[in-house]
Amino acid sequence: MLRLAASWVWDFWFADDGDQFHLFFLKASRALHDPDRRHWRATIGHAVSTDLIEWTEVADAIVPSDAPAFDDLATWTGSVVRADDGTWRMFYTGVDRGHGGLVQRVGSAASADLVNWSTTGRALVAPDSRWYERLADGAWPDEAWRDPWVFRDPSGEGWRMLLTARANLGDPSSRGVVGTAWSADLETWRVEPPRSVVGSGFGQLEVLQLEQVDGRWVLLFSCLGSELSSERKAAGERGGIWAVNVDDPAGPYDIARAYRVADETLYVGRLVRDRAGAWQLLAFRNTTLGGEWIGEITDPVPVSWLDGRLTIPADVAGLTPELSALGATAHG
């Protein structure tokens, strides 16, 4: 488990150099007292481990840039890949002071050793208004364009980025879609239409991750209960960590068929393979059952397929029998 005495920690992502697991995470000082203030003070921390359990914090990876810059207010969630030239590339979200933190953009940083990072200082991609909602549309509190998940394109050509995004049409409570962009070289990116359809029941799909777990493709994301569609709320559904089975990793992704893996006492589930090759899930501890904010990252728990669904142990998932039954039937 990662719990820092001086800072809250929440969204996170991994890189594996073969010897150590590198954990990158959002952090903000506990001296803020109110955890809701953390978003505008977030930096990207870094810890290392050999077993995914015992973590040693090292120097922070990335902090906000000097103004003016797309990330001069706070740095948010991302992912890490290894480029063809052997360097590591981190793609992360930035918000700026000029837009009051309400406009999200994606930038990148490079490293030879996963420890020392150099940022480019520029945003790489912005939502294309042909398909994606913009802040000026007024349908959502911010312009959602964040949490880049970068991976090699399944076609074998170039790289693909999945993003938390919103479509520019339909019920505002159900505009959450899988945004996407493509690049040949990790430098220049072309924004493309969403890989999911509007109206799938989510206001936004946070912290996407696409993996092939024991031979089956699955897309993981998170959504709070307060950000579910009006229809799902009316049906009594709750938020948490969600998964949707995927036939083709290139998409499209049928988000309407998503099922819940854990309730929102846990958030931002991340899949990673341990040294034995077994898939594990870590999440950050979001709130107590009474709603008190926690802000620490769990130990790994094993994942498995049960009746065609990705599952973790029920006592970890936090689902009561009633909620488990609800999650098993909703949009199944």
UniProtKB/TrEMBL annotation:
Q: Which UniProt keywords apply?
A: Glycosidase, Hydrolase
Protein's name in the database: Beta-fructofuranosidase
Enzyme Commission code: 3.2.1.26
Query: Domain of life here?
Result: Bacteria
Which principal EC class is assigned to this enzyme? hydrolase
GO MF entries: beta-fructofuranosidase activity
Q: Where does the record place a coiled coil?
A: none
Q: Where is the Glycosyl hydrolase family 32 N-terminal domain?
A: 19-227
Q: Name one Pfam family in it.
A: Glyco_hydro_32N
Q: Name the InterPro entries on file.
A: Fructan_Metab_Enzymes, Glyco_hydro_32, Glyco_hydro_32_N, Glyco_hydro_beta-prop_sf
Record family assignment: Belongs to the glycosyl hydrolase 32 family.
